[in-house]
Design brief:
The protein has a single domain (about 1-320), classed as A middle domain of Talin 1 (Up-down Bundle), CATH 1.20.1420. The protein is about 85% helix and about 0% strand. The chain has helices spanning about 1-35, 40-65, 70-95, 100-125, 130-150, 155-165, 175-205, 210-220, 220-235, 235-260, 270-295, 300-320, and strands spanning about 95, 125, 265, 295. The strands form two sheets. The protein has a two-stranded antiparallel ribbon. A two-stranded antiparallel sheet has the order 2-3. The longest helix is centred in the N-terminal third of the chain and has 33 residues, at about 1-35. One of its GO terms (biological process) is intracellular calcium ion homeostasis.
């Protein structure tokens, strides 16, 4: 009975995080546009932060609660899930074709961010404030680079934002209220989810890292799941691919960076080496799959899904052993 209560807390936390993230994105976009912020900047900062805000809230709460395994597992598990499960499902729904710029810029930078985790965990046994500062600095530099690269595409981005978020140019009290509500829901959801996940892990004898890699990762990735699958159905491959790759970059550099600045994550590389290896493999596979044919087809989608099932099988085997 106690385990069911903890599972209910996890589900409630996930729901609150999803609602909070959705409210935050909607209100922040409306406010940013009303303040005259360029749509490209809004897309690269506000929306990217908003869709990853559940991961940030959950990781911060877990780190402050003394559960670095959940904080790190949440990010690594979310990135694995994004690449193998979400892109796999999206490719089955509709082949995802990538632009050359996407291959030259976003995917290699995601690989770089992934590789940075290995020396960070190897040298210090965790991610400290120095590494966190480096991660956040790299993310800010990358956002600045992308902003300069998209300056010529303002009209296209403006039209896309008008379709997605509406064309309002004035902010009302409702927008500020929705922003506050989103932040409150995120804070409450993160606390409830972390409390339930930690108690569930300890009650069932499951390592906190595994809970973070699976249950928490899936729950906090709901915005990416919805956005990418809807984009695939609408035949918007750049949105589906960009959402996943951009989220993975932000998860590593932004979430782990900000979390480490607030509360350093002491965690040995040996305990998460396999999971980091799976994340790196998935990132490496994305590049040749896109580069050879410029697309992720249904065949590649099946490969990604099979790899994710294999990964879940490895986690289950460890628990059984």
């Amino acid at each position: 009975m106690e385990s069911l209560w903890h599972l209910f807390l996890v589900a409630l936390g996930i729901l609150l995080l999803y609602l909070g993230g959705e409210a935050l994105v909607r209100s922040a976009v409306a406010l940013a546009r009303a303040w005259g912020v360029a749509p490209a900047v809004v897309g690269l900062t506000v929306v990217a932060f908003g869709t990853s805000s559940p991961e940030l809230a959950a990781s911060l709460a877990a780190a402050l609660a003394g559960s670095p395994g959940i904080a790190l597992g949440n990010v690594v598990g979310s990135n694995i899930l994004n690449l193998l499960l979400i892109l796999g499902l999206a490719a089955l729904l509709a082949p995802l074709r990538a632009q050359a710029r996407f291959l030259r810029q976003e995917v290699p930078f995601m690989l770089l961010a992934t590789l940075l985790l290995f020396p960070a965990l190897w040298t210090g046994g965790g991610i400290g404030r120095l590494e966190g500062l480096l991660f956040v600095g790299l993310l800010l530099g990358y956002i600045g680079f992308l902003y300069r690269a998209t300056e010529g595409a303002e009209r296209e981005v403006e039209e896309e934002f008008a379709r997605e978020f509406g064309g309002r140019g004035r902010a009302g009290l409702g927008d500020y209220g929705l922003l506050l509500l989103g932040l409150l829901l995120l804070a409450l959801g993160a606390r409830v989810l972390t409390e339930g996940a930690v108690a569930l892990a300890r009650g069932l004898g499951v390592p906190e890292l595994v809970i973070g890699l699976t249950l928490v990762a899936l729950g906090t990735s709901l915005p990416e799941v919805a956005a990418s699958l809807v984009a695939a159905l609408k035949r918007e491959p750049d949105i589906a691919l960009g959402n996943i790759v951009g989220s993975n970059i932000f998860n590593i550099l932004g979430i782990l960076g900000l979390t480490a600045l607030v509360q350093p994550l002491a965690f040995p590389l040996a305990e998460v080496a396999r999971d980091l290896g799976v994340m790196l493999l998935a990132s490496l596979l994305l590049w040749p799959f896109l580069y050879t044919g410029g697309r992720l087809g249904r065949r590649e989608g099946v490969v990604f899904l099979l790899l994710y099932l294999l990964y879940l099988g490895l986690l289950a085997r460890d628990l059984g052993g």
